[in-house]
Amino acid sequence: MSTHLKVKVWRGAEQGDFASYAVPRRASQTVLDVVTYIQRHLDPSLSYRFSCRVGMCGSCAMTVNGKARWTCRTSVDQVAADGRLEIAPLANLPVIKDLATDMSEFFDKWARAKGQFKGRQGKLGRHQDFAQVEPASKQRLAASAGIECIGCGICYASCDVVTWRADFLGPAALNRAWTLVNDVRDSQRLERLGAVAGDTGCHVCHTQGSCTERCPKQIAPTAGIAGLKRLVAKAAFKNKL
Ligand code: SF4
Ligand code: SF4
Ligand code: FES
Prior knowledge:
Blueprint: E1 4-12, E2 16-24, H1 31-42, E3 61-64, E4 67-70, H2 76-79, E5 84-88, E6 95-97, E7 100-101, H3 104-112, H4 138-146, H5 154-157, H6 160-164, H7 171-181, H8 189-197, H9 210-214, H10 221-237
The structure holds iron/sulfur cluster (2 copies) and FE2/S2 (inorganic) cluster.
């Protein structure tokens, strides 16, 4: 095995090119370790984003050998057995510089999908009890299945409908809406269904599942989007939307 990895890294913004680097190969090395090595030892002007390094914050996602991945939890051995890596920014997002993308539109879409919780009870007084949610209920299980989203944008970058239609809300925002319509404590169910019902919402999804295949947290946005389609249809049938 070669002692060095051959690494190509995107440099520039929307316009740019790949630059080549030789990075020493190490045991248990992650793709984020490789990017960090380049920035610390070969080219300090390289821009990229990370924070936790343990799969919690969602900030380190990049395109690695053609696929969107969380780089802090992706080992080099897993994706570059031949010792070659090509690292680019996430697709479907504007590039700020090098490997750092602008996530504004991604999170604006969460707001457009009414991704904020608004409780029925308002502000609790000191002597009021917390709302009780039955742990084994169908709605609780559906909400729990999508709640561990870390906002990494990997599903969004892997969605070809987002590529074709930049206004599509996308899998992460719709997954968030799905967790909230299943939260029995929330008060905005119908407004949220209205927000995801339009021609940039759940009905645009073709259900082929790239988002579900790529999500590093094993969330299935495709299933949640199918659930939203059913709820929107039911609400429309009852003339509630
Ligand atoms: S299943 Fe829907 S949301 Fe997921 S990648 Fe395909 S079109 Fe996008
Ligand atoms: S659904 Fe999965 S891939 Fe999409 S933003 Fe959340 S954690 Fe990342
Ligand atoms: S650095 Fe936080 S998820 Fe990778």
